[in-house]
Amino acid sequence: MKLQSNIAEEFNEFSKNYTADMVKVVPYYLKLLEQFSQELPKEINPKHILDLGCGNGNITHKLLDFFPKANYTLLDASENMLELCKSKFGSQNKTYLQSYFQDYKFPILEFDMVVAGFSIHHCNAKDKQILFKHIYKSIKQNGVFMCSDLMVDRNTKEHESLLQFWKDFVLNSSDLETWEWLMEHYKTYDNPNSLNQQLKWLKKAGFYRI
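The structure corresponding to this sequence follows.
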């Protein structure tokens, strides 16, 4: 696999076998997807859901089982990913937006739920803090933000252990070429921060039940 010139092109290429490839390179991917349905607050009944970095729509697909009548806005920088979503979900109660997070103008108090799966780690620390503020302002009172992502500090021993575990996982499910491409992608496009750091940023943005 060859590294592409920007993150949108990278995922245009990666979209061809997205779910199967994610299972091979992301430990616990399917289990993490399930959390978006298993950890839903009991009292929530969203009318409008924003899927940030929707990819091929795996998270929206999970939520549709619970909220089939909700309106969904699916946002991604990759045109190919959005085309996959359109073919999967159609246009009824669906809005598709091609945009980077930094360019999207979040409407105020528009969404009952915002979800982000495996996408926010592409933002640097400054952009994450700005993004969390935009997300908070876009959510209605008693709304929910759900996120599953790569959360680690690259400057710790924990990071070294993570990379070794990750490498063993990928080599067991795929091959060395895939691992080398993945590390190139990781160094070029991924900007992970620790869970504790992001919890602080979420609280600073206004979130209080985390």
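Residues 157-173 form the longest helix (17 residues).
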